[in-house]
Every structure is written in structure tokens, then in C-alpha cells.
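Troubleshooting log. The previous run stalled partway through. Resubmitting the same two chains, unchanged.
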Amino acid sequence: MPPLLELQDVSARYGQVQALYGVSLAVDEGEIVAVLGANGAGKTTTLRAVSGTVRRDGAIRFAGKPLGRSGPEAVARLGIAHVPEGRGTFSELSVWENLRLGGYTRRESLKDDFVRVLEYFPWLEERRHQQAGTLSGGEQQMLALARAFMQRPRLLLLDEPSLGLAPLLVTEIFRIIKDLNEMTGLTVLVVEQNAHIALQLAKTAYVLEVGRVALSGASSELQEHESVRRSYLGY
Amino acid sequence: MVELARRRPLQAGRLPGSPVGLLIAAGCVFLLVGSLVSTIFAQQTVAGLATGAVYSSLALALVLIYRATEVINFAQGEMAMASVYVAYQLIHWGFSYWEAFFTTLGFALVLGILIQLALIRPVQQKSVIAVVIVTVGLFILIDGVVDWIWGASIKFMPGPFGNKIYHVGAVSIARQDIGTLAVTLGSVALLWVLFQYTKLGLAMRAAALRPASARLVGVRVNSMLALGWGFAAVLGAVAGLMAEPAEFVLQPTLMQPILLYAFAAAVLGGLESPVGAVVGGLAIGVFLNLVGQYVHLITSELRPPFAFAVLLAVLLVKPTGLFGRRRVRKV
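Second attempt completed without errors. Output:
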């Protein structure tokens, strides 16, 4: 079976600054794949290339079809949910409105989805009228997951879900991602600085260095890899 | 650059900050007591509310554009004026008033969308100043086109409400004032329902507030912004059509003083707040009317400069207006 998402020799640039130099990677349906790397390695840009929020060259195929020059609106409609850097919260709107926007591309009733989302995040119910910008960082990260989940995506792109969160919350968030993956078969491409927890979660991982794939393989193998251990795991 | 959320948590739809709420409550009590004591006061208040409602809807149009495009649309009044000429022409061709009214709103919607697509979008990425200059140019362009098609001479147009006067006790209230209030506030309320309770409205708010995030959830941001200009133009057209009977005649300068009042109303309300624009418009309408009645120094010629003074005072004393919020930016 061909992979759900496939990047072939993808490059991307911000104005004069090139961020990706020919990245290739593949994500199989139902899999969690992690992208690791230092600051500026091109992790965020890799996700942005997929969702069409940066100009990219090279081939990106989703479910067998090339994305071409599709912008973010079109990519979202194909069933790709992108939780960007900064979580993409609609700070001025209520928690409930954020969830409704998550389901914006869907035509059918969202009732069942609200129920499903509340199973994972029951606290959202009582805070539904609260302004989303007043939630704590951890709550906003969960809201972002819930919002993405409302979209019923085939592929979830997650940008540094652990950023700025207390360790306990990070564990909780990753547990939820794992749960969603196991229960619903959700495919996830996650970008992380926290290599330790990302390698535990993902089956496969890619290590980026200055816009290129430096290493890739099964997470278990990468965990044993000498340079990964020294550079990213710190032992 | 990180934009911090405002410090005090805000629930949607609630009056922010009790001092403002108290101020408005005090104003309402003052008007109510005054109206009970004096019939002239009551008449001037009702008439002021009617003109104020016109300012409100044009001010709301300015706020809609400001939220979506972050500029003041200086052509808002002229777009409204052109719409009134379209209604005039339709009536001239034999449409009934209300047929012409609704057809004109359709025209305004298309006009607003086309202006955003053809003139605003191409320069929007460049700079705010570029957009402002385009709206000023548009002001002149619309004036010229209207002059070219209809000429600058005064036109007469039948009003929708007639000259009937109702008597409530000793207070006489013009049917036209009641009708103006009902139509303008009705359209404002309709728009509010659309924005607050429909999927389209939610998407439009999301597109204006957080365009990047809105795109990621699949909202077609460009279409939403164009539609925002369309709705603003519709509100402006309502304001123009309701302002025309009070001016008695139709000429190309119809909306120019009204734009100034609406601008003052929008600034008073906080420029970003739809509620503020409506409250500001009503307040300025009533205030100007009462001042005109009781302060003999302020004759009708002095009204526009007086509104301008209000504008300056707000900017000096409380730049964020009644309902605006201070934006904290960290670099």
C-alpha cells in the first residue's frame, strides 16, 4: 500500500532564506511519525510545506494525489489538520466557537463529534463559553487537539505539542495523542524538540539537520543510535 | 512579536468594565427622566435616536471594515451615497420604494465585494497607507461617477414613511423617525445574529481575527474578507437610504457630514467594537440634538465641528473609546 503522505525532494524558502533542501519522508496510514531536530533544522517548515503555508517545490502526495500548489484552505478540505506553532487558537473567540471552527469543513451535524471530543476533554463542557485566549498553555494545547479532532482529519500535523508545558502535562498530551491513534487509527506527523518523548510515541522518526534528512528509521533503532543519543537525548 | 491577551478575562457579549456600563446606564436614566419632565426634551431625544441610528449603521460599517482590513474606509459614505442614487434611479424607472430598497441592498453587496476584490486586495499586502490612499481615491472616483451619471443638481426622492405624526400624550413623534429607527436597528440586529449565530458569521469573524489560523481550518479567508466589505456596504446603503428623507433632497454630498458623525461614533465606541459603534452612534445623535436644542450657541452650522471636537476629546482622554481594549504588544 502506498503511504498516506509522501514527500519527495521537497524544498521550501522564506523569501531569500532557504529552509528545506530536498526533504523526503513517508507516513503510512495509521502510523505516528516524528520529526526531530534542533532549532532551525526545518521541522516546522516541513509541516508548513504539507499544509501549504509556505511556498514549496518538489512532490507532495497525499492519499496518492499530488498536492501541487494547493493553499492551506484546500489542504484542510482534503482532511489534513495542522496544529501550528503557537497552536492556532482563536484567542478572541469562545472555547465552543474554536471547536465549531475545527469542524468548519464538515457538512454534516457536529453533535456526535462534540460528544466524542468531550470524552477526551470533559472539562471543555463547563468552560465552553470561556474566551479561548484566557486558557492556560496546557488547556490551549488540548483545545488545539480537540479542534483538530473536530475536523475528523485523515492526517494530523502537530507542531511541538510539548512547547512551554510542564512535564506532567506533556505526558498527558502525548497519552491522548497515542489514545487517539490507537482508538481511531488517526495518522499523526508530529514535530518535536523533546526527542525523548517523541521517540517513545512514534513508530518511525526522521532527524532533520539544516533542512535535510540526516537520519531516519524505526524509533527503537534511533534511540540506540550513537549520534541521536548524544545530540538529542543527552546521554 | 507576541501579542498578549487582554488582562481581564471577558465573557462574550457582556459589557466590559463596570464604569462604562454605569456611564451608559446613567445616560439612559438622564434621558428617561428628562423625557418625562419635558415634552420638547422627549421629542428631541426620539429624533436624536433616529438620526443616531443612521450614524450607528454607518459607524458599524466602518468598524466591520476596520476589523477585517485594519483601515478606515474613507469611501464608506460615498459608497452609501451611490447606493441611494441607484435607489433613486430604480424608483424613477417605476419600482416601488421597498422594491427599490431591497434591490439597492443587493447592488451595495455586489459593489462592496467588487471594490474589495478589484481595488483593496491588490494593495492590501503592501501597506496600510496604500489601502487608505485607495479608499480616498475611491471617494473621489465615486463622486465623479455619480456626477457623470446623474449630474450634481439636486434630486427629489419620495420617503418611505410619509409625514404622519403620532401623538403620545403631549409628545409628537414623526413616523419617519420611528421607521428610521426600526429599519436601521433592525438591520444591525440581523447582521449581529448572522455574525453571532451562523457558521458563515463565525467563519467571517475567524477570518478577520486570525486569518492564518482560519485558513488552516479550511476557511476561505479571502472570500470572507470580500463578503465583509459587501456587508459593510449594505449597512452603509441602509444608512444612506434612511438618511435621505431627513435631508429632504438628494445630492452627491449627502453622506459627507454623516460620515464624520459616524467616524466620531466609531471612535467613541472604540473602533473595534460593533456594540461600541451602535451605542456611540445613538449617543452622538441624541447628544447633538439636545445640544442643538438647549445650547443656543451651537447652531446647525456648528454641528460638524462640534462632532469633530467630540472626536478629538475621545482621542485625547480615552483613545480606546468606550468599548475598545488596549492592545499590548511585546517585541
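Takeaways: Chain B has a mean pLDDT of 88. The first strand of chain B starts at residue 2 and ends at 3.
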